[in-house]
Every structure is written in structure tokens, then in C-alpha cells.
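Why do we bother with holo predictions? Because pocket geometry can differ from the apo form. Keep that in mind while you read this record for pyridoxal-5'-phosphate.
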Amino acid sequence: MQTMSIKQNIENINAQIKKTCNPWGRGPADINLVAVSKRQPQEKILEALDSGHRLFGENRVQEAYEHWEHLKPKYPDLKLHLIGPLQTNKIKEAIALFDCIETIDREKLARKLGAALQEQNKRLPCFIQVNTGEEAQKAGITPQDFAEFLKFCQQDCALDIQGLMCIPPVDDPAALHFALLQKMAHQHDLKNLSMGMSADYQHAIPLGATYIRVGTGIFGNRET
Ligand SMILES: *Cc1c(COP(=O)(O)O)cnc(C)c1O
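The structure, written out:
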């Protein structure tokens, strides 16, 4: 199956993004492709870098260090997004490596991250993760609690909230969740939407995605 090169896969997805944008009057330049490199071998990451790609996503802090710590100094224009849950005891490490935390999902994290950033006099773009499907096992703030949580993040924690992120339930049509996220962002004047993965990013683009997170579609199946 996996005969395409990483470079070719990225080119194909970028072409698909362009094609999907056209009928909706969206500009392809507004869609940022986050290459999700979790549980992928280092040689595939290097191949993506060789092809010129510079925006990557990881879901664990520890693994992100293994993948990126030595590469970051070599690629000054590299951008790393944290797309998985952040434990409060990993905040300092996360701040040092990531350019964006997409998974702000609870008060304790917001408070401690805000305090750590203030201490370092640093700004870090953040997204709030919304549990649009209200699934018990999934991280994220529920839509009901969102407005109050956003205010808390912005006013009490001084976090730079630039957008929203969601992972729809596997059994639901993803577009319903993308539409809800879009509506929430619009109501609160947030500019960015991180939504859509390999299987459903083409549904996220018409609904306003500005970041799509594609793993297997670029790198092939993950190592277990
Ligand atoms: C793994 C992961 C992705 C990528 O999923 P694919 O189906 O491989 O594209 C996207 N978003 C999050 C939060 C992930 O954990």
C-alpha cells in the first residue's frame, strides 16, 4: 500500500486542500497542514522535513522531545503543535518545545500554564479543546461550560487563546461537530479552528478549518 513517498503524500494533500477550497471561496493559504508525526519513525520525519514541510503535531510531550529536541535548532522555521493532553507536571517542558498548545481543556491546566508563561514573560498561542460530542472518556471542555472557561483562560490566566480544536466522536458525522465548533468560534470572535484529520479534513474545510491535523494520510500507518 505504502508506495508513495512522504513528499508525494504532502503534495497530494495540498492539491486536495486547494481543490476542496475552491467551491467554498476559501483561500488554500488559510489552511495550515499539521503533519502529525506521533508514533512515526524518525526517517519519515526527516523525509517530511526534506520535502520542505515545517508544521508538525505531536500528542505526547515526552515523545515530542525524542522526535524533535535535536531537530529544532537545525530548522529555525519549524513549528510544533501539541495536540494531545498536557499534564500539569509537563508544562515547563511543553513551553520550551511547542509553538502552540491546542489542548487547553481544564481550569487547573489553564491556571498553571498561565502562571508559568507569566513567570517566563512568554507568550504562547493556545487553542481550547472542546468535547463537542460530550464523550465521558474524551478530553475537552463541554459546549455548555465553554463560554465561562474561555473568559477564565483569557482574563484570569492571561492565555493567548487563538482558536478552538475538536476531535469528533468516531460514530458521528464529523461535519456536525465541525459546524458546532465553527459556530462557537464565531460567537466568541476566535479566528482559528483546528479540525479535520486524514479521514475527514475535506469536510472541515468548508466549515472553516484553519488547521487540519493529518497523520496517516502523510506518513502511513503508525507504529504500535
Ligand atoms: C493522531 C491524531 C491525529 C491524526 O490522525 P490521522 O487519522 O492519522 O490523520 C489528529 N489529531 C489528533 C488529536 C491526533 O491525536
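The beta strands are 32-36, 55-58, 79-82, 100-104, 125-129, 160-165, 192-194, 211-214.
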